Amino acid sequence: MSNKSSKKIAKTKLKEEKPIKKVMLRFFIYALLIGGCLYLTNDKEVFSPVRKISEAFTVKRWEYYYKFTKKQDPDILFFGNSLVIHGINPQNFSTALGCNSFILAGPGTYYHDQFYSFKEAIKVKKPKMVIFETFGLKKMNSGRDRSAMFKSFAARKDIPTKIASTPFLANLNDYVNLWSNTVRNHSNLYDYDSIPIGDFNKIKEIRASNELYLGRYICFTQGIDSANYAKIKSDSAYYDTSIEVDANLQSYIESIVNLCREENIQLMFLTIPMFDEGLRNTTERDSVLANLLKGQNWLNLQDTTNYNGFGRESFQNCSNCVTHMTYKGSLTATYKLVDYILNDTSIILPNRKSDNVWQQIFYEKDGFFENNLIPVDDKKNKNLLQGKADDLISNVIQVSLKDYDKIIAKIKPNKEYTFDELKNKKLQLLIQANYEGKLQTFNIQLDYDPYHSHSKNVIFNMSIKKMEIKSVQKAAFIQI
Question: What CATH topology corresponds to 53-142+153-162+186-343?
């Protein structure tokens, strides 16, 4: 072959290579630009999934959990969906047991998401115990459930755990949607006006707040009214609790059990109740759960015996729906769980009540004064009576609030005054106080508090005008 022919062939190859290199270079530049845009828009939350107040709390849970566990060890973690988010009050739970509890649930999520949330949580800091709510132990059916799982996934932070969980949470064609808020939510750019400005500001406020946040979302304050109750009683509105189980559920439960065993974490399952008169097929549901959770520690608050104490005031005002807990309902459920852990299990938890750091975290938070002594250096609130170890009345305190004071008495039930008997009594105190410029004596009657009481600590309380109480001179129970 001549030199001219060789040069001609070489030039032809070079011409063929140049377009290929150009195409590859363009592809690389475009991919870099698209990837950079996706990264920036995801990082800056331009197309954020947080469009409702409830969704802000989903993100806040993980943000605060990472922050909280830098300084404190978590003792108990709750996993599940909206039933546990509304149904357990972690401040009261923590202050009653002297522990650190946290809810890491996601609204509308199911067992797949909850398992991988659990794996990420213990990678951050290992708790002493985990509690799984049972409503998510069933097959995921709707597009709404899928959307909830995407939002929960987006809120999580540990990249390796998220990568490992991706094949189990989404089909291949959903991978980009799962990982990119921009791809999943780009259409939201055109309907930001649909978000009420009050909600928009509230979302920003929730994300920015440094207040203690343990995962609860307080939303429902009104119990079931007469109109919705009439619909429920007429059988025109009810919720079907029957569940469909898919092939993977049992293996996921076994994975949870095995992981807890490997990590030496105590495990428990919990069923948060719904309004029983508005439900169908609970017996069938409980039978399926009993089979799935065979041999596991399970507290079913929907069970007839455990349901006692829940009323219309305990559940959100709706019919034909999943009836979430009101604030009052969450307290009832929380203290039933406290009772169960103290009396019916061998669960071992640390008691941090004498720890100064723990006291600083929970001081004046919901349930603190009902379950703890006033710190020695407290100049705002006052110990009025401190009983001995075997005394019926263990403690009486005066708590100073903004517009009034609150008297809280803590009673330890005994053989003469059992827990059930105390529910039907008032506690009368004879107090001496400085009021309107002079020392006076008053009889005050404290009412039984059904929402902060459990079998080892019965609470009586009442609100009074602000006054300087000098002493409690006498105490007696009065039959209602």
Answer: Rossmann fold (3.40.50)
